[in-house]
Amino acid sequence: EMFDELQQRGLEPNIITYGALISACGKSGQWEIAQEMFDESESRGLEPNHIMYSAMISAYEKGGQWEDALALFDEMQHRGVEPNIITYNALISACEKGAQWEKALQLFDELQQ
User: Which residue has the higher pLDDT, 63 or 101?
Assistant: First the structure.
């Protein structure tokens, strides 16, 4: 609703707006809507930053979508966006929820290097 209201008032959402929306959707378990917001931001020409990637990976984690979280992490690195501790925490948690222990341990090792 708030997003629609912003647009009706002629205010264009920016990277911060999308990051907040993705995070809010993720925290409420609505990973599909978070994905829509992520995709929409890219279709508007916004380059996702580490905050948006981390928020989306966290949304996947909360939704039990560990494979999507890993795929997005790969995309993030391919685009040259540097992951941070928050990114790794969400990704490790997603792997744990998906019973992907080996991958979780691999990510933990990667984080410590």
Answer: 63
